[in-house]
Write a structure and sequence with these properties.
Layout lengths: L5 H5 L18 H13 L4 E5 L6 H14 L3 E4 L13 E5 L5 H9 L2 E5 L22 E6 L13 E4 L2 H8 L11 H15 L11 H11 L5 E4 L5 H7 L8 E2 L9 H11 L5 E6 H4 L5 H8 L4 E6 L4 H10 L14 H7 L3 E5 L2 H14 L3 E6 L11 H11 L1
Parallel strand pairs: 1-2, 1-4, 2-3, 4-5, 5-6, 7-8, 7-9, 9-10, 10-12, 11-12
Helix pairs in contact: 3-5, 9-11, 12-15
């Protein structure tokens, strides 16, 4: 704790204004020549992983042009999915939670991986199993704006100290070979992404979260901003929604519960004419639910989708997996969330069946008010691919 004398807190001082400037780190010419040579000599499929921060719309456009020229698949790490258009034929999916097994297999089998901006920490690295440590079997080219990140966990074949902005600008001068030998592999990767995310599997209960995300995919504009905190509910957002543009995904990579609502408020104040949709589990929302008052006071007409399964779902999943039947402090007593937002002066509705969602969303959007849709989800529905009972039975079998 830092304590300051009271006079220091109240007295004024004169100081010259010092403008803050961001200095871009640029790749060297020899490094870009080395990159082009390695790309030309790659024998098996190549994968681009684009993540981290420091991206601009111009940088993402340059990345798109590079992927098109070289006909390469592009992957986005955990909660950085808005860096590449999901409807683009070169998109291959995301490295997050509940990732497509075919994508993991593709990256492990790749001859060359170009990692731009990201760090491949625990979640995108699939618990540090994608690459051997410290020396990956794949040719790893790691581009990062922080010199301290290069070689910290993985020893890259080529390390490039550069920001995404400067590096993608340098990519404009990297030319593909006369005959690109892997375009079919890029199509296979994109087909695998669509097979994984187009049609959601059925889950227990009358409300299907996969169908909810499919409806939003077709009825939200590409400029809509989606936010979320931490929880298993977010796996439906990651897998079934289509992010199209930079700045449309606000979500924590650190597992912070309660992040979604304050993030949505700030986004709506910054872009009042765009739809801003906050996803939150019942436990996640109650970490910052008092910010409904902030939203109403500030005139931030966000739309909150509260996915209520009556439990701390992620923690319960781990309890069932590691200690089947030993449940501790994960069952919740929740308020009527729709009534609560109405108490704040907003618009609230409860949804219990899939068919109710679309009309309810249109009503809250048309209201132009702070709104909340209270989705009542079967607690068995823990991920798009499994249930609590299935996890429990598998754990008992292992024991």
């Amino acid at each position: 704790m830092l304590a300051l004398p009271e006079d220091m807190l109240t007295e004024m001082a004169s100081a010259a204004a010092v403008p803050a400037t961001q200095v871009e780190t640029h790749p060297g010419l020899s490094q870009m020549a080395d990159l082009q040579k390695r790309l030309w000599h790659a024998e098996r499929p190549i994968v681009i992983i684009a993540g981290g921060s420091g991206w601009s719309e111009a940088a993402t456009e340059r990345l798109r042009r590079f992927a098109e020229r070289f006909e390469l698949p592009v992957v986005c790490p955990f909660r950085r999915q808005m860096l590449f258009d999901h409807e683009h034929p070169n998109y291959a999916g995301d490295l997050g939670l509940g990732v497509n097994p075919k994508l993991v297999k593709r990256i492990k089998a790749s001859n060359l991986v170009l990692l731009i901006g990201g760090r491949l920490s625990e979640i995108p690295s699939q618990s540090y199993t994608l690459f051997d440590i410290p020396s990956p079997s794949q040719t790893l080219i790691h581009v990062h704006a922080g010199a301290e990140e290069l070689g910290r966990v993985y020893q890259p074949s080529l390390a490039i100290h550069a920001s995404p902005e400067a590096f993608t600008a340098a990519l404009e001068g990297v030319e593909p070979p006369v005959c690109v030998p892997w375009p079919e592999e890029t199509k296979i990767a994109n087909d695998a992404y669509h097979a994984w995310s187009d049609q959601p599997p059925a889950t227990p209960g009358p409300l299907q979260m996969g169908e909810v995300m499919t409806w939003l995919r077709h009825n939200l504009s590409p400029e809509a901003i989606l936010t979320n905190g931490a929880g298993n509910y977010a796996t439906w957002v990651h897998r079934f929604y289509r992010f199209r543009k930079l700045g449309t995904q606000l979500a924590p990579t650190s597992g912070s519960m309660g992040y979604g609502l304050p993030a949505a408020i700030s986004a709506k104040l910054r872009y009042p004419d765009r739809d801003v949709v906050c996803f939150a589990g019942d436990g996640c929302l109650q970490m910052t639910i008092n910010e409904l008052g902030t939203a109403q006071q500030a005139g931030a007409a966000v739309i909150v989708i509260c996915v209520d399964n009556g439990i701390y779902g992620t923690i319960r999943m781990h309890q069932e997996r590691e200690y089947p039947g030993r449940i501790s402090a994960t069952t919740m007593t929740n308020p009527d969330f729709a009534a609560l937002v109405r108490a704040y002066g907003g618009h609230g509705e409860t949804v219990t069946e899939t068919a109710e969602f679309g009309p309810a969303f249109e009503r809250v959007r048309a209201s132009g008010e702070l709104s909340l849709l209270h989705l009542r989800l079967d607690p068995e529905v823990i991920t798009p691919t499994t249930t609590l009972s299935a996890i429990h039975k598998a754990a008992l079998k292992r024991a």
